[in-house]
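Following up on my earlier thread - several people asked me to post the actual chain instead of describing it. Fair enough. Here it is, all 389 residues.
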Amino acid sequence: MYNIALFGPPGAGKGTQSRKLIEKYNLAYISTGDILREEIAEGSDLGMQAKSVIETGGLVSDEIIVQIIEKKIKTNTEVNGFLFDGFPRTVVQAYILEGLLLKLNTSLNCMVTLDVPQDTLMERMLDRAKKENRIDDTIDVIENRLKEYKNKTVPVADFYKDKGICYTVDGVGTVDEIFERITNVVEQSLTKTYLNVVLFGPPGSGKGTQGKLLADKYDLVYISTGSLLRREIEKGTKMGLEAKQYMEKGEIVPDEFAIKLIEKQIQTNPDAKGFFFKGFPRTIVQAYILDGLLRKLNSSVSCIFNLDLPTLESIKRLTARSKTEQARYYDMDTDVIIKRLESFQNITTPVLNYYQKRKNIYTIDGIGTEKEVYNRLVEKLELAFKHAR
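Reply from S.P.:
Thanks for posting it. Predicted structure:
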């Protein structure tokens, strides 16, 4: 999902440019101004509450704005993301938007600021008032709105500058010239969008094999908590020795271990295009942890894949692996194999239900040759990445 906020003073041309952006990137348009005018025209309670504030050039209360935006987001599910025009207008609203997008397991990818001189703004808005007969565009109201913008809304740019996603664009010129400047910025920010994949599947489903192949194909950093822990065990580190006691019994190691290992992988790959997670998260708590880890990058889980494999097939594969050079020490004990499968069913399956609510999860048939399963995954990944970007 890709989300843009178009920022600028009244009269900067946000509405015109927004219409072109939503068509180009298939975004849902969220303009608090337009929505409020619709509410006023309908004579709704929200509209009547907002009318007196708008006519004096003030800002409508955040309580009203939140209700309107939440409704708009929930009723637009077949889009690549959202374009926010006129919101957020205060730092408080910036935090509100963070929370709203967090519900969708997404975030704001970029804020584009249109820079226009004040005399040009006054000229544009007075001309608009004549053409559209807008009662909220008188000289006194315009001056008050520009003052409000300077005092309350400009700090929002600093909020997003600190996050590294605020871009300033010259807002003077023809519509097409300005649009080209904006799309150049948007395309630039797209290259900074992380693609994060989580691959699920029961023990023996081939997650490791497929995960490495896919991470390599899409140039993503492969993170397998199991592999990282085995490396710690081989090194004989304190973490490795402690983790071995859990893994030999087919149990999940403490979450602190996984957090340290994942954070290290993220920190040592600052130029990563994204991350491919195999074997994590395995619990609901770990799902929340992963959200928190990615949130530090101003990112989120892009898509989730579940390799569907019957329990009997898992047992057959693990038993067969125990007789090869790729055998793991926990493949040798049938009781441990069964315990691991039970753990997946009882503890990890609920995580799949958690992600089902986000509508970015795909179930893949895990039966077949390595190439057949790989091709199925690639087909769905291409689709998922198109929606993610």
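The two ends are 6 Å apart (CA to CA). That should answer part of your original question.
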